[in-house]
Fold each of these.
Amino acid sequence: MADLGMWRVDGDAPRRVGRSAVGLERRLEDWITNDSSLLADGLTLVGRQVRLEGGPLDLLAIDWQDRWVVIELKRERLYRDALAQAFDYASSIAAMDAADLEELLRPGLSTLGDAEELAGAVRRQLDGEDGGRDVAVLLAGVGVDAGLERIVAHLGGYGVPITIVSFEAFEPEGGPRLLIREVTEEQTGPPRRAHRPRLSIDEMRGLAAEKGVAEPFDRFLEMVEEADLKVQPYRRGVRIAPPTNRARYLMYARPEQGGIYLHAGPAQFAEFFPPLTEDEATAAIGSLESGAAYQGGAELDACLDQIEAFLRALPRPVEDGKPGLE
């Protein structure tokens, strides 16, 4: 993004928009705390300025793949030392005793949202680790050094999960500040832990049966398939993607003992199903935006009724911003 430019076009007279002098590292942390989708879909923030042995970690999250995500923010271009620092933090999180990690995060949860809900998310994450803790790294800054890109691509070949997010801020005269984002997705590679492979859909149904939620989990899968959305199994749950881009995220469901954990992204539904707006999607599934565990019985049935009504009313999907063809 070193040569990125922006112009405001009024008739035939384009006017260049200047870059903002905003201190991105300080402001980004606040912005991301308010809206974690600035970095990635499906992130639940559970830590801010977390004091670790190697120093303060900017942000810690849990993603829809049931991984801890170490987030390091820089106000300048990202260089190799940012990755080394993030790996230091990641190694601390990976090695920490579960009880110590839970205790470390608990005091700061109230600054990130509903403390009780977030404490439940942390507890579920720790309970599901099954002898192994998956930790991913996300770096965010203003531009990316070529040397860092080369290292990330190399490590991706070994399945090391690293995402890079690069921002530029622009400030039009008389208008609101604009934030431009570029994401370098994780490189694909062999799984890091052979003893924790992804489950198949049938195996995921078996897991739901073991936890006593076979019928509602099957119902969820059926309504998703009827809406022509794509189901992708992961280690402990299923990701739901739009039919036009299987790499993107719409929803996530994980069977738990006696219930189902559900998460959905209103902004992502609005992106792929216009003229549906984000406000409309939020009104329909807003309770799922931050993720929640629904216990069996009437509570879970009501939630599934809500999802089913929403999915049945979806417009036709679009691909690359263009309506799908009849």
Amino acid sequence: MKTEQEGSRAYLISIVMVAVLGGLLFGYDTAVISGAEKGLQAFFLGAKDFHYTDFMHGFTSSSALIGCIIGSSLSGLMATRLGRKRSLIVAGILFFISAWGSMVPESGILPKGEATYTLLIAFNIYRVIGGIGVGLASAICPMYIGEVAPSNIRGMLVSWNQFAIIFGQLVVYFVNFLILGDHTNPVIEQIGQGFSMVAANSDPWTIAAGWRYMFGSEMAPAGLFAILICFVPETPRYLVMDGNDRKALLILSKINGADKAAAILEEIRNTISEKTEKMFAYGFMCIFIGIMLSVFQQAVGINAVLYYAPRIFQDMGMENPMVQTVIMGVVNITFTLVAVFTVEKLGRKPLLICGSIGMGIGAFGVAVTFGNPALSMITMLSIMVYSASFMFSWGPICWVYIAEIFPNTIRGAAVAVAVAFQWIFNFIVSSTFVPLFNMHLSKGDHFGHWFTYGLYGIICFIAAVFVWKLVPETKGKTLEDMSALWKNRR
């Protein structure tokens, strides 16, 4: 319902819902690998012209993250030059190209269904293209929402972007489960340090076609996002920076009402008039804290669980690991909603600190019990605690901080740097997980399992101390307030 004085909440929600589709694609693209990676590994293990090693598989499973680093690094420049809206249109197109190319990396040029080194390169190129789209969306979607949302509900609306990311992961878990149907993931057996082979009784359909359908399924939401984003407005703050005050006022009035719109426009003009190109114009700590929030969000190890969930549950002896993966997705959705509905009441810092402690406890629980059949339910519960704690804390709240912690005049560049660091550490964690997880000191031991999760647990507790000591609370502050906050802390 719209009134001239109050603005239209329905209008605000409609444009935010389109923007969070970018978050859904972010989650979909990054988690699709969880169901497809074993079939993909088995396919390339059948190559005749090279030997597909565990290291190669770790790289291939994580290659989209290279694109994420590129996309997030370019996001500041694109958001400033093209605007927030047109940058998101580019991201949607890249998502679609990647989904098609990952499904048929032969592209009508290479021999269909023949695993070769050239095909492996082509597949990774398509995944990198999708990663560039993810990198753009990961930086610009929360920026877009943060710039259109009123300050009193900004944290909640930006948190919906994280909900969309997790919902996208749940959707793709479920889609992968349906695609797999009565088929099973191939059984991969280790034949030496860093080398694997496909067990003779593995399902040939999954190896030949299953992983292709999983990657191709992303074309539907990618196409929808690319079309719908064309119908949302540009953000008022970008329009003011671009000299289009009249259009900015019109959009602000639709969202906030005429009276508030004029005051908000004046605040934006005041901060925009402080033109500066210097990244550290508001001090070193402003950039450092933004970067470290991104680093900790990944260094706690959550994406090692999200990307390899079926593999982990299969190694735990679960009969149908895809079912456990879907259950984990439901738990993740539930606890993300906790953050959505409490972030404006409890604040950002308490949720981050509590989540860090919960993750640390869950990670140590996995480290101590993994590999013991008698304690498999405790291991499963610990993974759920670990994952759920992330979902009400570091998952959504980090994006809230990234969207709001930087002053207007450096936001585009600062967000790009912070999100680039996030994807760099995402790549480090994801590409090292399989080799670390499979480490053995002697045959049959579980050294890699407890070392990996023990390391993540230690990082979780360090993250809690970092937030407690250094991170400012931003609940209830306008984006324009950030300039004064950091000037006072210099």
Amino acid sequence: MRPTIKYISFYDFPDSEVRRSYSLAATNKMDYIIDTLVKTGYDVEVVSASACTERGRLRWYKGKIESRQPHVKVRFFSSFRSAGKVWSLLRLIWSLLQLFVYLLRQVKKNESILVYHSLCYYNIILIAQKIKRFKVILEVEEIYQDVSPMSKYLRRLEYRMIGLADKFIFSTDLLNEKVNIGDKPYVVVYGTYRSEPYLSDRFDDDKIHVVYAGTLDPRKGGTVAVNMASHLTPEYRVHILGFGREEEIRAIKSMCVEVTNRGGASVTYDGLLKGEAYIEFLQKCQIGLSTQNPLAKFNNTSFPSKILSYMSNGLQVVSVDIDAIRRSPVSEYIYFYREQTPEDIARTILNIDWNSPFDTRAVVQNLDYRFVEQMRSFLDDKTR
């Protein structure tokens, strides 16, 4: 009989009938870890603390268990639709109370559960752990205080949650060095090691297509990716895929027109694509850009998920040179630029060796095989 491991998180399906609070990027990473757990012989029960985010006239939604693949089920707690900040707070409290009751009733002493790092349910996990004496495998994707400012209380709270873990799943080796003070057992998974199926051929226009996928925040990498186009030759074409506020989208579109008119490579904003449409578009291109400010604090501990997304679709990757990427298992297959300038990025693109490009799909497939074997050893019988 297959053992079951519980996975505590904020989780939902993109096409769920009831909209709940969750992060698509986090869910994609969770889905990969779930698939890996199934490969290692586990059944997985995902326990979602996500509350309904719908606004409008008060409406009650019952809790349910949903299964969309063998050996995996997702438990959603009851929630309700409402309007107003007070009701939103009550929805979160109601979800957390249900999570607390679940932990007390369903988790056994010395059982190991997997918990996605979140400050929202830290106290719930802590109190339940003291009562039931279960073990926590904490998945830490980033240190939140490195991403955005926090009060002193929340900074302490974050490290207290990290301290309660018995084992870790980290997104970079740098995270392990920073927070694993007790040298507890850990594994590192930099992203989704899933090579995507072939859905599309390259653009058939004798051009080399470069794509940037990500935020359109002017402080991040989208702006420099657009400006870089004017430093390429006309045989290149640059595509911007991304998300942002309406004013950011308008600004990027205007910038694309302005840069294209300067000469060099043409550049266009091609919208926000998801699912198969996103995969198909990436596979039409040859180069993926991971452009971001190398001085940002979060770069010390976070790995850009877009790099593995590009590689899983067979693209060559051009990236900023930072420790989190340089010390990753894919670093030897990446073309690095030193300075966050349009000129340096374009220079790196123009120096790509097309006579012997990296087989990035094979790299991702090998990482997947290795991670499955690591998880077998990491979990072993002590977590069952």
Amino acid sequence: MIKGLGTALITPFDANGKVDYEALARLLDTQLTGFVDYLVVLGTTGEAATLTTEEKKEVRQFIVHYVHTHPVPSLEGRPGGVIPLVLGVGGNCTAVVCESLKTIDLTGYEAILSVCPYYNKPNQEGLYQHFCKVAEASPIPVILYNVPGRTGVNLLPETVMRIYEAHPDKIIGIKEASGNIEQIKKLIQLSNTPSLEGRDGEGFPPLLVISGDDGIACEVMQAGGAGLISVASNAFPEDFWHIVHDKDRALQTKYNEMVKLLFAEGNPVGIKAVLAQKGIIQNYLRLPLVPASEELKERIKGLEVRG
């Protein structure tokens, strides 16, 4: 079920710095239209690192309840129903991540998305052992998350496959945000090699390789990738659904400049500026992140007008 377009949801805040649940409901309404295949909750884009344990619990539960009471309509021959949810659960202390997985309520979530440990800069063996522990602790499937630009470490294709082969019953995919298309292609090739141990005869499907970069979604899909976990689809779900499902390179090219602007001052700075301009949220972030500069907001607004 975790294929196609997934939106990495932002977390809206109000002027007092509190989670803005009215804005979150408005955002969810824009996502529950049939053009998003699943939602990723409390990831990097959701500013999870700055939310308290209680806030994370409240956001988790709010989204589960809202999604289950607002089923997606059938659209263009696609079935409707309750949209799948993926929850971000990661960190740079293996023991803390594993304890969280054993204690938090994961009801309503299909899988977790777990980022490579950051700051510590473990080697490949450390990454392998970390994710093996995460797989053992998680009661639901696990999607690995490789994003070297944020973590300082690169989860290599061979290590990914070691982790998968050690826990094929739990590891279902990887969000690959290295930006290295050759590395991603190599991983896709390895994940589809039928002779890999633990694959044939055991009923385990190939590892899902999911693009973590809006700007190269078509390239990843054409290489055999399983879709995109998108930041941009917070604001442009229909267009990015077509980019993913139709492999529409022309439409992706149309968004090249917008995608660059979304990340020009950090994520989710850009996408929150877009959503605020659309009237969906207020443009507030939590320190150390600050709202987009006036210059960036004007550049984004100019693209919006031309689009």
